[in-house]
Amino acid sequence: MVTFANGIHPKGCKELSGDQAIGRGPDPQFLYVPLSQHIGAPAQPAVGAGERVKRGQLIARAAEGLSANVYSPVSGTVQGVVQHITQSGKKRDHILIENDFSDESVSLPPLGEITGGSVLSRIAEAGIVGMGGAAFPTAAKLNTGEKKVDVLVVNGAECEPYITCDYRIMLEYAPEIVKGVRFAMLACGAERAVIGIEDNKPDAIRTMSGAAEGNVSVKRLKTKYPQGAEKQLVYSCVKRVIPEGKLPADAGVVVVNVHTALAIYKAVAENTPCYERVMTVSGKGAERPCNIWVKNGTPYRDLAEFCGGSEDCARIVAGGPMMGDPVFSLKVCTGKGSSSLLFLSESECESKSASVCIGCGRCVAACPMGLSPVFIERALFDKNYEEAKWYGAESCIGCGCCSYVCPAKRFLVQSVKLAKKTIKEKGL
Of 182, 200, 218, 247, which residue has the fewest beta carbons closer than 10 angstroms? Predict the structure, then answer.
């Protein structure tokens, strides 16, 4: 079985929510829909205070350049564009909608002829972004320009512990995902597609293999973190190396997530824009771990109440425990890239304090990018950013393997990410 070098094997903890079929999530009275649910410029409001909207109605248009449309997840009355707290701790523009619970809806106009160009336009129109967490506008990713792409790699690895939303959609929406994959192939010009799934999900492999045929195949991958990272996934699926500083398209590949493929299917075949997604709510601090359809703009507090998540648990994390971020306020709201919300107990959290590096080299042995995190950290502390760059800080994917294996419990991934950010800011 072809796989990438290094990596780690954290405890999966997927049994908490893996057997929970996808249900409907909470229906909040107030939704704070972010104007920035994607990489790039925030969308520009297309509605004003007092205006009544329907579910599926465009409420913010993509800005110039890299951006994405935003749609209303409910029917109700727009209260205005307000500043609301985000996961970063900063306040950003959100469209506040008061839900009237009538669930009146509108759809996108039916797509006429299905061509690569029309599918690409529909993906942009629907506001679809990468739903594996990166939130890169999908139309921009699939529009590879003059670069020749022959393979579409579809990420079904879901290597982060706890998260099971992709696993459940592969079990419950396999035919739709495969159709979405074919639409994506048409949009980017790929001749074949490979859906990569870790071997700890044998039922998902069987289900997806049953739906796939012809030039769409399923690849069984070794269960290892971070198998779902773009460069590692491409190598494991098609044994191609993405050059340093380049994009997958430079290796003839485009990568999309299985949830993104499902969103593409809904936009093209069902004329439904992207205004909700499946999320996992899990952890021992949640009474009812689950996988649920969640409307964009849903406050975390509503999710906590719906799933019995305790605000007094040891730690709340948005995303996975390896690459996710600690939640400091349940006022923060969900977006297109919100894959999970974890309520972790004391037994699920590391409580040891950081100590002096013992020079064991485990961080080097674990790094899937072949970096030396300990030396990058040292260069950061010495403010020698040229040296940090020489050691490859810019190639860090932020997976956290180095911090996970460090016996001294040093904040290695945070240090390397800070070095990467500083190098970019200084233009080195």
Answer: 247
